[in-house]
Amino acid sequence: MSLDKTYKKVPGTTIFDAEQSAKGYHLNQFCMSLMKAANRERYLADERAYLDEWPLTEKQKQALLDRDLNAAIAEGGNIYFLSKWGATLGLSFQQMAGSMTGMSEQDYRDMMLHGGRSIEGNRIADQVREGHYKAEDTTGPDERPTITGSVFTSHVPAIGAAWDQHKTEEPYWKAVFDGYEYSKEYEKENTPDVVFLVYNDHATAFDLSLIPTFVLGTGASYPAADEGYGPRPVPGIDGDPDFAAHIAHSLIREDFDLTLVNEMTVDHGLTVPLSLMFGDVERWPCKVIPFHVNVVQYPIPSGERCFALGQALRRAIESYDKPLNVQIWGTGGMSHQLQGPRAGLINAEWDNRWMDALVEDPASLAQVPHLEYVEEAGSEGIELVMWFIARGAMSDITGDGEVEVKHRFYHVPASNTAVGHLILENHPRATVSAEKE
To answer: Which end of the chain has fewer CB within 10 Å, C or N?
Structure first.
């Protein structure tokens, strides 16, 4: 079912949604640059030269050069950002607004003095009468994304270092990397178009000045972060802004409060799983939508909340209008504690029971309170709540499909951590029925 975007039918109105934001990201960032006096001076001295410093489209540049605010908004501009540009040119808000209505500044002021523009003739119903009401979406189910499976894995930074330093055959590390040999072959044969990758940032992109609970990456690309030892020698991430914007719209409409980020670096929480699943490549074989969950500073989301988010994520993905192969990855954990007198804690029995339950009864497992994670799996074992997002998106959760365990692996230790790994293949009901016939 298509997302409700009936706001697009309001006449004479452009709503600044996630799609518009992605389209106009650099245009609006250009406007923000004009908050500095030195930049304003440079812009006014040579507008075209300053615009050429930004990765703007020609349509965006021309809209600004023509002082055409309607064109700028059509190209993703937002009026609050564009007001910085207008202020640089010495324009008031009334002058800017008047220019978009086809009225002179004086006529616009007179209209406002007489009570403003009338609502009559400016409702959606007026568009219907004039034959401008946009047809509803008719995208068929075969033209929509399919969630083909989920991947669950620890994202230990030392695994990345061992990979980068070519230590995979050393006795200590060989047992860890052997557990992912099947996984790399599986991904070669089942390479997705997009991976929605759930991870947590480790005080890299987000410090204590900003602590968002859920972060959806809506940008076009994300470089590997420098975590103190220099960035990992791995490819940068190619995002999918259009798909991410669609997911943002759907999840927020379902009351999941997301922070949308167009620019950020990504640390080992995201890059280590990619290395484990895809190996050593010059470019990752698919696009990646990063999804950060705060599991560093309490309060953090519950397993139940993450499980519900996964179910909403499935609805968001399946309502998109392109036939994509999508995998959802949940990363982090398993049992480990990195601080205090209990540092080094591992609970292999608890870990394996938890993985059993994740496959067999995830809804009940999602009810486990934070205290049990901290006590039984260590203070950093709480990262496991992120696995519920990937698990909640599988078709067996709503009873309209099945999952198949393709691979399971567990090992102790990798540095300070127990390593857990699962691959679940998703079989929606239509697929299951066809196979049984």
So the answer is: C
